[in-house]
Amino acid sequence: MSLGDSATPLGKVRGLGSAREGGEHWLTERVTSIALLLLGVWFLASLLLLPKLDQTTLLEWLHAPSGAIPMALLIVVGFKHALDGVKVTVDDYVHEPGNNFVINTLLLFLAVAGGAMALFALGTIAFGAIG
Amino acid sequence: MIVSILHRATGIALSLAGLAILTWWLMALSGGAAPYAAFEKAAHHPVGIIVLVGLTWSFFQHLLSGIRHLSMDTGAAFELGANKTFAILTIVGSVLLTAALWVYLLEYRP
Fold first, then answer.
1. pTM above threshold 0.90
2. For B65-86, how does the pLDDT look when each residue is reduced to its tens digit (9 = 90+)?
3. Torsion of CA B5, B71, A111, A117, to 10 degrees
4. Which among A31, A41, B6, B74 has the fewest CB atoms less than 10 Å away?
5. 3-state secondary structure of A47
């Protein structure tokens, strides 16, 4: 092997496998999962620590950078991790290449559209006059 | 085995229902009083509460079994006994956390 013995196990399998891809996808799924561990706990803790859960309080929370920035990250990383995770399931059960491509493409469009809608709503709150 | 299936099922639930509700919630929040009142009405409806309880359990279960998978990626706990113990602990943990959260939300939260 040209990589030699110094390559890590992950380094050795990158770009190999029957499809010559997948190493990056596998790693991305894990890195986003660690980010979501932090962001998910932040989200829940924030909701529990807010004095009230009415619209005004929530808008003030997401208007401030301390709320808006982690929420933006939660949206982006959350949709990315969801897309990566659902793709694994689709690839496990839908083997016909045409159907696999159609379903994965629809899911990609759905994730991008959903993420854009969530980010736009958050942007309206963060950059709006409310709060 | 069962925990592995639960990891997938809860992941799909969070991806589809969880992110859809998160997006709806943000759009309702930014949309003004009427859209947010509609969201709150749905969230306080018994069916809405069941869905939200299901999603918080999915969140905790996916989080705990996700940590289990990450530690197994390092090669840890592949022995049958330890593996099974940690698998059961993810279910016990997710149920306890969900119960604690909702008892607090429904009974003690102003």
1. no
2. 999 999 988 887 777 888 888 8
3. 120
4. B74
5. helix
A44 and B100 Cβ atoms separated by less than 8 Å: no
| Exposure of A17 in the CB half-sphere (CA atoms within 13 A) | 14
Residues 6+ away with beta carbon under 8 Å from A71: A43, A62, A122
- Integer-rounded Cα radius of gyration of chain B: 17
Q: What is the pLDDT of residues A55-70, one digit of tens each?
A: 999 999 999 999 999 9
| Of B11, B15, B63, Cβ closest to residue A37 | B63
What's the gap in Å between the CA of A124 and the closest CA on chain B?
6
CA dist., res. B52 & res. B102, Å (int): 10
Q: CB of A77 within 8 A of CB of A118?
A: no
Asked whether B56 and B27 are in contact (CB, 8 A), the reply is no
> Can you tell me the ipTM of this complex?
0.92
HSE-up (13 A, CA, CB side) for residue B109: 15
CB-CB contact of B64 with B94 (8 Å): yes
